Amino acid sequence: MRGLLVEPDCRLVTLTGTGGIGKTRLALEAARTAASDFEHGAVFVALEHARTAEQVESELATALGLDAQPAETLAEHFAESNLLLVLDNLASDDPQGSIGETYVPDVSRSSATLAALTIRRPVERALDVGTGNGIQAILASRHAGAVVATDVSERAACVRGVQLRPERRRERRAPARELPEPVAGDRFGLLVSNPPFAISPENDFVFRDSGLGRDRVSEELVLALPSVLAPDGSPP
Question: Which long-range contacts (CB under 8 A, 24 or more apart) does 49-53 make?
C-alpha cells in the first residue's frame, strides 16, 4: 500500500469492499506510515454525512483549515501542496441526488473505449476537449510535454488541476461551440475528446447534453479541431 501511495505516477488509490472489513483502519494505517513521504503530511476527511458536491467541498475545506470552500479555492490549495488526502466513507443514499449542474461523472465505458483507440506516442502538447473526469488528459500527460484540458464545467477543470502534475497542467474552459477560439493560434500533436453523448436538444446536464440539435456538437468538433492540429499530429 505504501509503495502505491508514494509512486509518483499513482495519483489515486481506492479501497473497496463490503462494510466492516477494515477499509478505514487500513487507510488510516497506510496514511500514518506514508505521511512522512509527503511535504505537507496526510489529511483524513470523514465524508459519511456528505451527500452533495458542495457538502464534500465544505468538509474538505474544514479539514484543511480553509475559510472558503469553492472548488477553485480547493484546487489552488491542492496545486500548491504535496499531501496525502484520505477520503473516507463517501456515499449517497440517493444515487441520483448528487447529479446536478456541476456534476462530473466518473470514468465510463466510453472513456475506456476512447483511451484504447487513442494513438500513444510522444508529443510536445496535447489537447483534451470536454475533459470531464479528466481521464483522457491524465493518460495523455504520460506521453505529452504539456496538456491543455478544456471544459465548460468549472468543477471539471478544477478537478483536473488537482489530478495533473503541476508541470504538465494547463486548463482553459470554453464551450465546444466556440472552438477553436479558446486555443486559436495553438497547435497540438494530439487531440482527444469525449463530448456530451446524448443526441438531443436538452441541456439538463453539462456532462450529457450539448444543448445543440441532434449530434451537432460532434460535427462542430470535427470541423473546428483540425485547425489546431499540428501537421504531424494525431486526430481525435
Answer: 50/90, 51/92, 51/93, 51/94, 51/97, 51/98, 52/97, 52/98, 52/100, 53/98, 53/100, 53/102, 53/103, 53/155
Q: Which residue, 204, 206, 212, 137, is CA-closest to 177?
A: 212
Rounded-to-integer distance, Cα 102 and Cα 35, Å: 32
Q: What confidence category does residue 123 fall into, taking pLDDT thresholds of 50, 70 and 90?
A: very high
Which grid coordinates belong to 223? 470541423
Q: Is the pLDDT of residue 173 over 50?
A: no
Could you tell me if 78 and 13 are in contact, meaning their C-beta atoms sit under 8 angstroms apart? no
Tell me the pTM: 0.54
- 108/97 Cα distance (integer angstroms): 19
Q: What is the amino acid identity at position 3? A: G
Tell me the DSSP string of 167-197: GGEEEE---GGGTTGGGTT--EEEEEE----
Distance, CA of 6 to CA of 38 (rounded, Å) = 8
Average pLDDT, the chain: 76
* Separation of alpha carbons 224 and 145, rounded Å: 23
Neighbours of 80 (CB within 10 A): 9
pLDDT of 189 > 70? The answer is yes
